[in-house]
User: Which sequence fits this backbone?
């Protein structure tokens, strides 16, 4: 049995752990060759394959892989067209699969990547191929359907909560009125911004407001809440999702007229929500404001990974392999939570249609009444996902990474 | 003997380690009461004092203090006027010092804070007071004179180098032309931006350019270098100091006309250097660009502190106490490096005039010829400062902090 695995879409801290999980489970299942595709399906189309058996030949390399951010194999944002309009691309893919005698194809990615798995599996069935196609979800956005949570979310949430906690300490030191706006990734779902709520505890007052795209937002009510809060507290810290929306459906940052076009999937590129809001507060209240965009480090900070997330991300990769070995295709491995306290989460497999191209948002019941905080239910849901640390391997003062040259 | 200690200016990850060092050394030297001033000299003027003997009563609290970012006692940006024009303020300070029977006054801060120590010590001498005033330097900027490096720089440098390393992994995953501009703190000195050079190693290509305020910069040569580099490499990552300057002395970000006024010390508030340059590159080259501002986490990320920095910051606090006990006043504790390999660094004491209100910039000899990288000499200088980790105390998935309520 030969298998191939690829990574696609935006990186997370845990996507290489899923790669490690796929690799180890494939070897355990008796795979001869485990190929890795460089730059996802885009590189596969150019036959840019590596042999992971050689690259991940010892346990130390696998452990280092789990501690390496982004995609070890590289990524792509290449969306397959429908087979009806671009069949030659599908033919090419199946030719390469045949040439390398590949039995199972694993694709680690977000919902756009699950769409690739869906299309390839459907085409395979149509042409009578026995190759199995299985998706391994990942995204810091936690916005995939069916799965209890996504691999990669726990580490990103741990990073966000830690940084918010440190920023709260930083902002509280001055005896002055000030507003700090922290912008967190999340286009249509506020899952990652919600993680700011985890910062609150015995030793931290937490953020003063947490604003998600799911909750109604108007500039007027935003200003009113800040004004009220500034009467009782000096330094406000506000966590805001990049995708916070106005009642008319526009993104708040569109008020500043500085969006940067669309990506190849037609998603609007958002920027400047925090900058816009900080500037608006400075003008309205005449006080010091600061905009902080957590930006790429949210998805790349493997120096602060959640051990739970890394271990689960390995397991979901292994679950994908086990499904393929059982003969399943056109499916994705997912998490099924049995219990919050004590936390218990199993892996499962679902039809890829249930996950591809769909988005899961934060339930409104988990957002408090005035749309500025999360409920205990969210905290109970998210807290187990950030538990434990995977300490980096440090060399000469910096975390070491495994790099494919 | 009673002593008082305060913290002032912008926070670092190590400023509480210096507080711990002052406290422990004062107790060791037989101090009865160790007072802490809330919000620096500003709070002292309002007699807002706490008794550290009560707050730091056990070893665990002191260890937690060393792992807490920002200023445990709070900070201020309050600059004393000259005694000639505001003598009543000095009289008030000395009245409070007398009331609490304080023998030694320690002030942890940057060069503006050293100015406070200078003024109080001079006034004390003038009125025949025997109270000793000793400064404990701190700043992530590493821009203080005389001292080999500043407490706080090592941890900030470790953070910057780690994040750059992670961002290099993140940016390299796509097979597309792109430019990422990472903005790092440093108004007039490029020390912290220089730390990006530490990222380069066996497992990391490092940044493609590192731009400091000390090196000449023009938009034309910036574009030329990017154009040349894009011919041989896909994803460029450029570390840029917020204070990068044009030949006419203006900050680059002033080209975007978006500076935010001045702070109370008359320093220009800078913002948007990376945004401006990323936007300029997008327009010039028609490729994807991204601006990342490392912002406040550079000075607040105690979850990634340098153990060397934390230990040295304790020691420099202790050295200040020892100097005061010897009867010295109007001095600051500093680091004196004996050797790079093996690294060996002692503490010393210098006249506060040699450090207050002065800035140390990166030697031009440590910047390469085309002004885009650092030399081996810088690496040899900086590498020892980022060694070792002070692992946070984690509780329920997040680092714990010691908080004064």
Assistant:
């Amino acid at each position: 049995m030969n298998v191939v695995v690829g990574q696609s879409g935006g990186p997370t801290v845990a996507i290489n752990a899923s790669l490690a999980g796929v690799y180890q489970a494939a070897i355990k299942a008796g795979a001869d060759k485990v190929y890795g595709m460089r730059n996802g399906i885009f590189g596969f189309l150019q036959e840019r394959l590596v042999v992971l058996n050689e690259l991940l030949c010892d346990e130390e390399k696998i452990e280092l892989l789990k501690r390496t951010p982004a995609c070890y194999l590289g990524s792509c944002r290449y969306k397959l067209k429908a087979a009806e309009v671009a069949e030659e691309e599908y033919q090419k893919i199946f030719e390469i699969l045949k040439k390398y005698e590949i039995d199972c194809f694993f694709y680690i990615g977000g919902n756009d990547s699950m769409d690739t798995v869906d299309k390839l599996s459907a085409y395979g069935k149509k042409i009578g191929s026995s190759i199995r196609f299985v998706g391994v979800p990942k995204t810091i956005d936690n916005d995939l359907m069916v799965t209890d949570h996504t691999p990669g979310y726990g580490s990103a949430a741990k990073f966000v909560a830690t940084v918010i906690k440190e920023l709260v300490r930083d902002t509280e030191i001055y005896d002055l009125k000030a507003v700090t706006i922290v912008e967190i990734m999340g286009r249509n779902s506020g899952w990652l911004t919600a993680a700011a709520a985890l910062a609150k505890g015995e030793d931290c007052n937490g953020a003063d407001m947490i604003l998600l795209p799911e909750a109604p937002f108007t500039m007027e009510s935003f200003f009113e809440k800040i004004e009220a809060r500034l009467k009782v507290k000096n330094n406000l810290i506000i966590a805001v999702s990049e995708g916070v929306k106005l009642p008319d459906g526009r993104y708040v940052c569109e008020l500043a007229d500085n969006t940067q076009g669309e990506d190849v999937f037609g998603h609007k590129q958002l920027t400047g929500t925090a900058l816009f809001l900080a500037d608006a507060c400075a003008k309205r209240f005449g006080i010091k404001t600061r905009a902080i965009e957590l930006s790429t480090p949210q998805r790349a900070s493997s120096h602060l990974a959640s051990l739970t997330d890394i271990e689960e991300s390995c397991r979901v990769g292994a679950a994908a392999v086990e499904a393929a070995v059982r003969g399943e295709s056109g499916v994705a491995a997912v998490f099924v939570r049995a219990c919050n306290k004590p936390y218990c989460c199993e892996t499962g497999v679902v039809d890829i249609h249930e996950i591809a191209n769909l988005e899961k948002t934060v339930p409104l019941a988990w957002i408090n009444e005035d749309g500025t905080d999360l409920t205990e239910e969210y905290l109970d849901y998210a807290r187990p996902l950030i538990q434990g640390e995977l300490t980096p391997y440090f060399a000469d003062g910096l975390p070491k990474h495994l790099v494919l040259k």
In short: Chain B has 13 helices and 13 strands. Chain B touches chain A through 63 residues (CB under 8 Å). Residues 153-300 of chain B form a domain with the Rossmann fold fold (CATH 3.40.50.460). Residues 94 and 127 of chain B are 10 Å apart (CA to CA).
